[in-house]
Predict the structure.
Amino acid sequence: MLVLSRQRDESIMIGDNIVVTIVDIRGDKVRLGINAPSEIPVHRQEVYEAIQRENLRASRLEPGDTQDIGKFANRGPSRPGGDKPR
């Protein structure tokens, strides 16, 4: 881990297009401003971890998730006005 000392209104460059600026320091809290391209997501760590947990949960199949697969497979295309042939 790189550890840097910065004062208020000083910045750190990450790569060529991410700037982290010290906006304010109050007691034991530091406010950061982060300027990054819109295609780079920026989250607090706890939010990022929650997103990862939810994505993992959503990608898992639970028992019963597939019970209705194929239930309507033999119906064929629906017809205008309902499923009855004319």
Residues 48 and 59 are 17 Å apart (CA to CA).
